[in-house]
Amino acid sequence: MSFLTETQRKSVLQAVLKVIGDKFINPGSPPPNGGGLDNQYGEAIRGANDPETFEAAMNKLLQALGISHTGFFHETKPRAGGKIALASTFLRAPTQDGDRWVFQDVHPGGAAHRAGIAPGDILLRVNGTEIEAPTPLSFQLGENYQVELRRVDNSVVKFEISLPGSKEKKRPLIVPEQVVNAEKLSDGVGVIRISMFPGVLGMDVARDISRAVQELDTSRLIFDLRGNSGGGIGCLRVMSLFCPDARGVGYSLGKKQIANGTSKESLPRFGRIPSSKLQVIPLALRFATAGRAIAIFSEGLGPRKHHGKTVILVNEHSASATEMVAAFASEERLAHLVGVKTPGRLVGASSFKVGFGYRVALPVAAYFTWVGKNLEGVGVAPDTDLPIGFEDLRAGRDPQLESALAIASAM
Fold first, then answer.
1. What's the CATH number for 180-346+364-409?
2. What pTM did the predictor assign?
3. pLDDT by residue (tens digit) across 5-25?
4. For the chain, what are the domain ranges?
5. Domain 81-162 belongs to what architecture?
6. Which value, in Å, is the radius of gyration of the alpha carbons in the chain?
7. Longest dimension (CA), the chain
8. Most buried of 39, 47, 163, 369 (most Cβ within 10 A)?
9. φ, ψ dihedrals at 42, nearest 5°
10. pLDDT tens digits, residue range 185-196?
């Protein structure tokens, strides 16, 4: 890919600023000043002399918007942070090697897990370059990386990590081989770990979640959503398994609906994940003009023996659609939350072409819980606040899971 001329870089910048003016949404905040953004960041963007510097300068402008779900990337060579690329989250910690990133939630089937990386491993170098926290982790999808780690026994080892390419041009994404994993613990407690909610309609993940509940066949459940990066409406299946009836979960509004003061009662109602492709067509027709403005209701799946005996694990990496789940359970008192406060990264985003193969991703819809709370920048606080520290990870301890098991067993 040949790099852009200064005139072309200027054209892309103007296209980005136009999309921000036309589409960007941040409820409760004044609209961004395009001229001010240009004055502050334009010179660095127009003067960038290579793709990496150009993308970094553009992403710095987007960070100034002060909201999640923003990004700037090229369709042919998308990049993603470590959480998406490796299907793993990281804890910043002082170590014997200095301030480093420590692997925290390592999701089964993800790139880090396939390479043999485990929670507690300390990241030292990537392709020979020293990585010190808080330097952000960024990887080009579809490439191989040499990663050097300090393991929990203090040995230093090297791994080669192969990252698959993104199948989605609109937003770089890697889906682990298996996003739903289940096992039965002691005292008849089942734990279901969900690493993300892939798919716009979430048909596959919803099916896998229901199958896991059925196969566990337990009266007490733990949903482990730690490190879950969110995704689509497949999260509705988890919420629907908390209660027997169809009840309001939340609603989303676009820029137009917020400006018009649209009420949640007037929005199109989504309350069932389709079970077959035949059900997708009438659903698509029904919501064709709704865009992101919809009201979400639980599916009304009927009574389950685990109702009232459910625990949810969340942490600072449980974002987006995962926070919808946590907020619904918390507001309706349907489950006990254990862990730490979620990050408050909950908006609906889309990406837009801005020329020469580049795309900009921006929030275009705001999500509110059924009682009207906007969780962006706020997050959801657990009932039992219990962090995991560096020493826990290095020793292989999981106090959050232990607490969840004790709480579930006593229900």
1. 3.90.226.10
2. 0.92
3. 999 999 999 999 999 999 999
4. 6-79, 81-162, 180-346+364-409
5. Roll (2.30)
6. 22
7. 66
8. 369
9. -60, -40
10. 987 899 999 999
